[in-house]
Structure formats: structure tokens, C-alpha cells
């Protein structure tokens, strides 16, 4: 099937914050992620098939789909952790299907990742947790030599940006879930990522905190021109915080469009079981995109 993703202008930036990339530039920008005809199979069982996806600078894209539809697998394919059996995956100019192990490690250092369980080191300070982001792709030498003053200053500036510089010396385990996710986002930014993948980053947070974390991710997308792909289970959050929505069902991408142009009916097909006439559902979704 052919699903054509359109670049979109970002939402309005926060007051007093000028975007670093103009809307005109965004519209003509090349995608930082370009996936075509992706097929991933485990033990010859396909879990993604014919998936196309583009991510453009400055946009936040919500990835929807029922449990088991392939969202995490799609994210893993963008860092070379999924067994790709057909198609192409280009990330920040690299064709992942042709990279050696060393090159893949280098590419992963350009991909910031945020997870549902935050994945912080609980006993270490908030500052040290952020500093570990600088280790991506740097090898053991940094561990031996310790972190430079410049690294520390940058980590503190990032903590300030995400609103928890006052917690820098506290152990990560003493922070609330929402604060821990902010630390994890600062750690991802420490890598100077080209893209950010957030796999259910708000699933462990209450609705208010969930909104504030998604707002932060949206600000980062807009201000830094970094595309953010975020998987979500809560439709209203996807509607409120994303520029575009892509949706998987049974490993197929049935929905791809601007958030503002997708109706509840378009998204409902994602949560119908696969034996409820998938062809009809797929046609309905496509009818909408092609409109
Ligand atoms: N390493 C693996 N080996 C075998 N099957 C796998 C593996 N990883 C994922 N799968 C299968 O691939 C399918 C898609 O899984 P995936 O985790 O990508 O779904 P998801 O949409 O992220 O689900 P959830 O919302 O529950 O996290 C599932 O059927 C899953 O069982």
C-alpha cells in the first residue's frame, strides 16, 4: 500500500521562543527518517509489513496502534535492533540496512531515546544520569577520564531547560515520575540527537504530568528542529500534542495524516480486531488520506 506522509509546519512555538527553523524551511526540508516498504519478521512471522514512514525536522508524530500492532518494533527498526527482511530504513542520512556494527553504534548515538520506565540509574544523582547521555558513542575513554567541565555545564543547562536544575544533586530515585521523565529527556538531549524516539513515555504518568511531558517534547521538536516519534495509547493526548499521526494495525500502517485532518472514525480502524474485515477498514483509512 502506498502511504504518503506530508511534512507539516510545527505548532506555534511557546511565547518568547523563536523557532530556529522557519516554517518555509521545514516545508522544504528533507526527512531525517525515511522508511520504505519495511518488513520485519520474527521466526518468519511478519510483524511489520510494507511500512512507509517519513519524519521531518521540527515535527512531533504520534505512533498509535493496539498492543502488539508493531509500534515498538518500528522504533527498534530505526536503531537497527529489529530483523529487517525487506525494504529500506534511512536515518540521518544513513541506510541502516547497510551499516556495520561500528557504524550502527555511531548512528545510535545520534538517536535520543525515551522510555516508559525512564531507565535512570536510581542511586546516581540527577546530574550524573544526564551526563551518561554524553557516553553514547564515546566508548570507555570518557568513563575513565570522567566528565569535563563543559559536559557538566551542558548537563546543568539541560536540566534547567527541562525545569529541574534545582534537583541536580538529588538521587534520581527521589524524584516523581514526571520529574524522572524530564531527567531522561535531558539525558537524551545530552547526546545532541538528530531524532528522538519516545516509546510510551507517558504511560506511567497521570494525565496532567503526561501533558506536561508531551508539551516538553513538542517544544524540543519545534525549538531544536528535531523530529520526535512518540508512541501513545491515549488518543486525546495524540490529538492534542502531535502534528501528525501514524497508526499500525497488525503490522500494517493503516493511518497516516495530519492530526487535524483525522477523524475519530479514521483512528477507530486501528483498534478493530484484524478479523473485522481488514480490507474494508484499510480502504476507509486510505479513502481519507487520498481525499
Ligand atoms: N523479539 C521478538 N521475538 C518474537 N516476536 C516478537 C519480538 N518482539 C516483538 N515480537 C512480536 O511482534 C509483535 C509486535 O510487537 P511490538 O512490541 O512491536 O508491539 P507494540 O505495538 O509495541 O505493543 P505494545 O503496545 O503492547 O507495546 C507482537 O506480536 C510481538 O509478540
From TrEMBL:
Keyword Transmembrane helix: no
SMART domains associated with the record: AAA
CDD domains listed in its UniProt record: ABC_PhnC_transporter
GO cellular component terms attached to this protein's record: membrane
Pfam family, one: ABC_tran
Entry keyword Transferase: no
Domain of life: Bacteria
Keywords: ATP-binding, Cell membrane, Membrane, Nucleotide-binding, Translocase, Transport
Entry protein name: Phosphonate transport system ATP-binding protein
Organism whose genome encodes this protein: Leucobacter luti
